[in-house]
Design goal:
Elements: E1 11-15, E2 23-28, H1 35-39, H2 42-45, E3 50-55, H3 77-94, E4 102-107, H4 109-120, E5 127-131, E6 151-157, H5 165-177, E7 181-187, H6 196-211
Parallel strand pairs: 2-3, 2-4, 4-5, 5-6, 6-7
Antiparallel strand pairs: 1-3
Helix pairs in contact: 3-4
Length: about 220
């Protein structure tokens, strides 16, 4: 397969510059989309003290096969995608932010990525928002570490053709066992999309993060 890896792809930004922001949201787009598409959420969720950062996947796809395939089948693209998130988090921390000021948000393939990355790197983040996604791989394991009551939101249709309801429930159980403050909302026959309830929840958490109420 000739799919390129993701290092060196564009990273777009919106909102406040990092050096003027009180909090940061790293936003990961879905399969076949791009950084601009996930940043289109910003006007709906905007909190004026947030910086928004959105990396671009090479070829618009973070990994080639379905997320519930064995992890090895999606390598080396999955590891490359996870490394992009690591690099952005490290960049934000180097600017003087703490993990409680960092939110991770993804939709679809992006939701799978932020979930997987967070479980591999558990800390008390501002929040992890997984919109229509779940943990990656054919079998789920609970790694060591704790989220220390960090908010972890799973929102998905109960009939999503891409994301089985059972995987959302299994993912939520893993995160809860790791000390996450899990909010799971399965919306009846919603389809593979984002709804107003999710937007309202996200904005509410952002307000708490800016005020430091989650520390």
């Amino acid at each position: 397969m000739s799919t390129p890896l993701h290092q060196g792809q564009p990273v777009l930004a919106a909102g406040k510059p990092l050096d003027a922001a009180k909090a940061v949201m790293i936003m990961i787009h879905g399969r076949g989309a791009n950084a601009e598409s996930i940043l289109s959420l910003v006007p709906e969720i905007e909190e004026p003290d947030f910086a928004f950062i959105a990396p671009q996947a090479a070829g618009g796809t973070w990994y080639p096969y379905p997320f519930m395939e064995p992890v090895e089948r999606n390598e080396p693209y999955l590891s490359s995608a996870l490394a992009v998130i690591t690099g952005l988090v490290d960049q934000v921390l180097a600017q003087g932010f703490v993990t409680q000021q960092i939110m991770l948000l993804g939709f679809s393939q992006g939701a799978c990525l932020v979930s997987e990355w967070a479980v591999r790197n558990p800390k008390r983040y501002g929040a992890v928002i997984a919109l229509s996604g779940g943990l990656i791989g054919d079998k789920l394991v609970q790694p060591p570490g704790s989220f220390d009551d960090a908010i972890f939101f799973f929102g998905c249709s109960d009939t999503d053709s891409h994301i089985p309801k059972s995987r959302v429930e299994e993912s939520a159980a893993v995160v809860k066992a790791m000390g996450g403050d899990v909010i799971k909302r399965l919306y009846p026959k919603m389809g593979h999309t984002i709804n107003h309830d999710e937007i309202a929840f996200i904005h509410g958490v952002m307000t708490e993060v800016v005020r430091g109420e989650n520390r």
